[in-house]
Amino acid sequence: MARTKEFKMGIQEQIIESAGQIYNYLNAKGEVSISKMKKDLSLSENFAEMGLGWLSREDKLEYTQKAKSVTVKLR
């Protein structure tokens, strides 16, 4: 019987994966609220924020405060 090795992604890899999902989503959708993005992508609060932080550090995002929400889009 063949044994399958379970691949466990490390924290940094999960952050990079989340950042990639966010980048692709924003590339397709344009400007969206952060709450809508999190809901649509089903990302945990932590990984959504870390993914946004990763992309922000790379200067890929632009944020706008709109009433009670914050929107984000690619630069």
Structure description:
It is a single chain. The chain has 75 residues and is α+β, with helices and mostly antiparallel strands. It has a single domain (11-74), classed as Orthogonal Bundle (Arc Repressor Mutant, subunit A). It is built from three helices and three strands. The protein has a three-stranded antiparallel β-sheet with strand order 1-3-2. The mean pLDDT is 90.
Short description:
The protein is of the alpha+beta class. The protein has helices spanning 11-29, 34-41, 45-57; strands at residues 32-33, 61-66, 69-74. The protein has a single domain, classed as Orthogonal Bundle (Arc Repressor Mutant, subunit A), CATH 1.10.10.10.
Which geometry do the CA atoms define?
globular
State the order of secondary-structure elements, H for helix, E for strand: HEHHEE
What level of helicity do the residues show? 40-55%
Percent of residues in β-strands: 15-25%
Judged by helices, strands and strand pairing, the structural class is alpha+beta
Oligomer: single chain
Rg calculated over all Cα atoms = 15 Å
Indicate the CATH topology.
Arc Repressor Mutant, subunit A
Mean pLDDT: 90
Structural domain count? 1
Low-confidence stretches: none
